[in-house]
Every structure is written in structure tokens, then in C-alpha cells.
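Predict the holo structure. Ligand: adenosine-5'-triphosphate.
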Amino acid sequence: MIEAKDLRVTFKGKEVINTTFSTEGKCLLLGPNGSGKTTLLRAIAGVIPYKGSVSIDGQEVRNMRNMVYVSTNLPEAFTLGITMKDVIDLYSEIKDLDQSLLMGKLKDVGIDDLSKKVHELSTGQSILFRTAIATSTNSKLILIDEPFENVDLSKRKKVAIWIKESGEEGLVVTHELEMIHMFEDFRVLLILDGRTFGPVKAKDLISSVLVEGVDPSSVLTVEAYGRKFSFVKNREGIKVADSDSLERIFSRYL
Ligand SMILES: Nc1ncnc2c1ncn2[C@@H]1O[C@H](COP(=O)(O)OP(=O)(O)OP(=O)(O)O)[C@@H](O)[C@H]1O
């Protein structure tokens, strides 16, 4: 279980996260550009300082020494090693990496020449490499940032399956709203301007439309842009499932 209580992250005096939530199981973390998705993941992964509390299964992240049961594709976790093989060797030492599972994935997406230098990978190949490793450990918890960015449509389905098959809980960040269809059995945590809302069942969210104000029948009520909004089912309007971005959903009201 991930639990955040008054979790705050500040950059140069500007507070970019200020939130309280708890999640069980695997959740998509959805939010517009700059809403704080990556920062939240970094705080949970323990790679940036934070105020307040964030814990994994009751253990405060800032006090954790060896997060072997946490696996992430955040770039910070991959700065050691020059070649792909170096990174895999190091990861095998510090995490419980299933090398044959990993090699199957790398072959499947065409990046299995391990002598290649990590900095020579294209942007899409680099994210595929990091996500393949992060989803090939036996870690209980996964923290995956933008796994579909710069990744060909034909490979996105494979990556979604990697994620669905790895870990028991965690957060998967994406701003690609159409990918939500691959994760209908997940929950969704929304993040708007550093504040989280939910989690809510992905199935409920995608079949709802956004209305302004607090609606008692809503599946989720959020506060954003100084106003309150509700996601409601069985209502005329553009469903979340038919939109390509959260920004577009909210932009109707701004
Ligand atoms: N190292 C940093 N120094 C200063 N400001 C930062 C830093 N990292 C993030 N921010 C700011 O924090 C806010 C949240 O950024 P973050 O990268 O977490 O957003 P995001 O939701 O992941 O965005 P995107 O979808 O565009 O990747 C932004 O306003 C960003 O400018």
C-alpha cells in the first residue's frame, strides 16, 4: 500500500506537490503536463527530498535503505553503467532481476544487442529498455513513468502487457489517455496542480463525462483551476473514453 499524508515537494520555493492519498493494487496516474506526475513518482521512489509523509507498506520512504521490492523505470535509477549489459549486471546485483524474462522482452522489441551504449539508444529505445528492466524484477511495487512516450503504436500493446504482468501494486504515469483502455482493470489516481484525486475504477472513469460543480452521483469530484468538477456516468456529453487528453476534457470549461 502506498500512503501519502500531507506530502509536499517544493522546487525553488514553489510547492509543486501538496497531497494526501492512499492506493492499493496498480493505478494509472493521470494528469496534465506539469501537474506533478513525475515529481510524485520521484518522491515515492525516494530519489528527491519531500516533506510530510509517504510510506510503502507502512515504511516511510525517506528511511528505507534497500528498496529491493520497489522497481522503477525513472532515468535516475539507470545512471550507472555505460553499456546495456553493464546496467543489466548492476541491476541483477541490486534488484531481483529475471534475466531470461528481460532478454525475451528486449528481443521482442528489437533492442537485444547488449554491447550497445545506453546513451546511443534512441529516446523510444531508452524508455523501452528501462521499462523492460523495471518490469522484469520480482519487485512487489512498480513505479513506471511515461512508458509509452516515443514508443511505436505496434509496441505499446507489448509494453502494456509487461506492466500488467509485473508487480502487485504501484503507479503507472501516462498522459496518453487512449492507453487507459489497456488498463480497464486498474484504478486511476488523477493529479491536478500537485493535488491527487481518487483512486477511482478506470472503468467508471472512462464511461463518465465531466460536468462543472459537485454532483452527488459522481464517480469522482475534483478541484482544479479554482473550481469543482465531477465525473458522472449516464449523462450526455463527451466521455473520457472518447477524449485524447485530460487537458481537452477540462478545456471545454476554461
Ligand atoms: N528539478 C526541478 N526544478 C524546478 N522545477 C521543477 C523540477 N522538476 C519539476 N519541476 C516543476 O514541477 C512541476 C511538476 O513537474 P513534473 O515534471 O512533475 O510534471 P508532470 O506532470 O510529470 O509533467 P509532464 O506531463 O509534462 O511530464 C512543473 O511546474 C515543473 O516545472
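Residues 11-12, 16, 31, 33-39, 175 surround adenosine-5'-triphosphate (CB under 6 Å). DSSP finds seven helices and 13 strands in the chain.
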